[in-house]
Amino acid sequence: MTEIRPRRSALYMPGSNARALEKARSLPADVVILDLEDAVAPDAKETARAQVSAAVTAGGFGPREVIVRVNGLDTPWGEEDLAAAIACVPDAILLPKVSTPAVLATVGRRLATAGAPHKIRIWAMVETPLAILNIAQIAAAAADQATRLECFVMGTNDLAKETGARLVPGRAPMLPWLATSLAAARAHGLSILDGVYNNLSDAEGFAAECAEGRDMGFDGKTLIHPGQIAAANAAFAPDEAEVARARAIIATFDAPENAGKGAVNLDGRMVERLHAEMARRTVGLAEAIAVRG
Length: 293
Ligand SMILES: CC(C)(COP(=O)(O)OP(=O)(O)OC[C@H]1O[C@@H](n2cnc3c(N)ncnc32)[C@H](O)[C@@H]1OP(=O)(O)O)[C@@H](O)C(=O)NCCC(=O)NCCSC(=O)C[C@H](O)C(=O)O
Ligand SMILES: [Mg+2]
Prior knowledge:
Number of helices: 12
Helix content: 40-55%
Bound molecules: ligand LIB3CWND, magnesium ion
GO molecular function: citryl-CoA lyase activity; magnesium ion binding
CATH superfamily of the largest domain: Phosphoenolpyruvate-binding domains
Low-confidence stretches: none
Order of helices and strands: EHEHEHEHEHHEHHEHEHHEEH
Binding site for substrate: 69, 127
Family: Belongs to the HpcH/HpaI aldolase family.
Domain HpcH/HpaI aldolase/citrate lyase: 8-226
Shape: globular
Structural class: alpha/beta
Mean pLDDT: 97
Distance between the termini: 22 Å
Strand order of the largest sheet: 1-2-3-4-5-6-7-8
CATH architecture of the largest domain: Alpha-Beta Barrel
Keywords: Lyase, Magnesium, Metal-binding
């Protein structure tokens, strides 16, 4: 089975904020995204790049995945950001505003030319109307190993900006885009993270949006503040009852008397072998989270 990496919580932090970068080493987020793009003002871009390079090179992030979000290659900072990100060897480089597969091919070639370690993967922001229209082709780029594409990250703020859709409770205007991106990601074996929740003082609304993202199938949620980590970690982890049920399903299909059966009745519910596969994933995720403590 492929390794399961919990990505329940992915915390953005501005690369220009030295205090935040320092805190990243101790916060209980599964993923930290060191941002050079929208969280950093134009006159702080160089400082942010230097600070992020130094922080990633210094390491000390423990089990957290370390991601560097660069500026787009069509901006004055993009090329230097990409070179600096490759040089400091994060777990992945997050490309903003990916609207077509072409940019993934271009970045793949840059990585190859630079002799970038295989460990560095590529994550792509899905945050433009064109990305939504092209999402099947963008996801299909993962078939070309040279792109190193591993994960989609929804950029709901930019989607709201570019489309005029409002960020309302329940996210009705965005649900078709979220669901289509999710289907495209899964069709090509990609991980996918939900967008951010901007209202730091609305814990109830945040929990509801986490639950919505989890029920849709997202692996986790992107976050903007440490205060959001615990709720995201709880929402995107299977709870005790789910793990117990998953273990029971696995045991049912492992029992010799069910060896020839495709479907059985477990406590009044039909379970099929596909449920045993899902159950193994649930237990695998729970175990990976438990190792993290
Ligand atoms: C949103 C903030 C500007 C709020 O800042 P502030 O009011 O200063 O926070 P606090 O005083 O509550 O901070 C308390 C302590 O926590 C640390 N902190 C705060 N935020 C972070 C963080 N993101 N990572 C790490 N540590 C953080 C503070 O340093 C305080 O520490 P201490 O000194 O020990 O008390 C701020 O939270 C912030 O800048 N958040 C991140 C903003 C960001 O990265 N935005 C870009 C991504 S969002 C996006 O646009 C996604 C996508 O592209 C899209 O289009 O949707
Ligand atoms: Mg954005």
